[in-house]
Automatic annotation (TrEMBL):
The lineage of its organism: Eukaryota, Fungi, Dikarya, Basidiomycota, Agaricomycotina. Gene3D superfamilies: Potassium Channel Kv1.1, Chain A. This is BTB domain-containing protein. It comes from the Eukaryota. It comes from Pleurotus eryngii.
């Protein structure tokens, strides 16, 4: 049995639980730091982290909503937001703790970082991941890939394989899938499927599906633009994301308050 200070009552992690059951927590192999000052648990994995609070205080709006004293002791850790696994959180922490400072991982890993950063409301990490993703090939669920392409204004060719897979499948988009992708992407996919039906002669497409998909998304998509810029409340220095190949240089100033990001094609400023 682990020492008593490594046991956490489940009722302290989830108020919905009626009874307290003690479960052993496993220290994360990389991010349980001897000089850390913030304890965070991933309940789905029974994994506890001990990290420097500075990074989340400065970069996560989710952190700003947590009780002030929560996470200061191992027996009273913060609980990661819903849907974040230990691996998800570790991938986000890697952005801050990468000893090489090169931040070189696969496109699939950057996509995972982006999605986890969205849930933890970390706009600067989202921007960094997005800038990396633009230059990398990513094999992922086609609907997720299209949704990311639409939300972050990435060039449509980046998700060409995803559009092709969705447009050539037998079933049309469901309501939930359309909500996930968003209206512009849903309308474009519907147009492609309609054109495929029109140009079909005797059940044979007169135009190659890949050619048709590329033509339609090129006609209907605006020029690639920078990802939406996060709105920061309080004083801060300008955040810059310079893309040179796949290398990104990020200059981040001091943040004095919470911030939020608007994932849409229209930029908003709220102060």
């Amino acid at each position: 049995m682990p020492p008593s200070d490594q046991l956490v009552a489940l009722e302290s992690l989830d108020p919905k639980e009626e009874s307290a059951v003690l479960v052993p927590l496993t220290h994360h192999q990389c991010y349980y730091l001897s000089d850390g000052d913030l304890y965070i648990v991933a309940p789905s994995d029974n994994t506890i982290f001990c990290i420097h609070a500075h990074f989340l205080q400065q970069h996560s709006a989710w952190m700003q909503t947590q009780p002030h004293l929560a996470g200061r002791e191992e027996g009273n850790p913060l609980v990661l937001c819903e849907g974040i696994t230990a691996n998800d959180f570790a991938s986000v922490l890697w952005v801050f703790y990468d000893e090489t400072l090169e931040r070189q991982v696969s496109g699939e890993e950057w996509l995972g970082i982006l999605l986890a950063a969205e849930k933890m409301q970390m706009p600067r990490v989202q921007l960094l991941a997005c800038c990396k993703l633009k230059e990398l090939t990513v094999a992922a669920d086609p609907l997720v890939k299209i949704a990311v392409q639409q939300r972050y204004s990435i060039r449509p060719q980046w998700a060409l394989d995803a559009y092709l897979e969705v447009c050539t499948r037998p079933k049309p988009l469901t309501l939930d899938e359309g909500l996930m992708i968003g209206m512009p992407g849903t309308i474009m996919i519907a147009e492609i499927r309609e054109q495929m039906a029109r140009v079909s002669v005797g059940g044979i497409l007169a135009e190659e599906p890949a050619t048709l998909v590329q033509r339609v998304i090129s006609q209907n998509s605006p020029p690639e633009s920078d990802p939406p810029v996060p709105t920061v409340l309080g004083e801060s220095e300008t955040f810059e994301c310079v893309v040179g190949g796949a290398n990104v240089v990020v200059h981040v100033g001091h943040i004095s308050a919470a911030f939020s990001i608007y994932l849409s094609d229209t930029r908003s400023d709220k102060r």
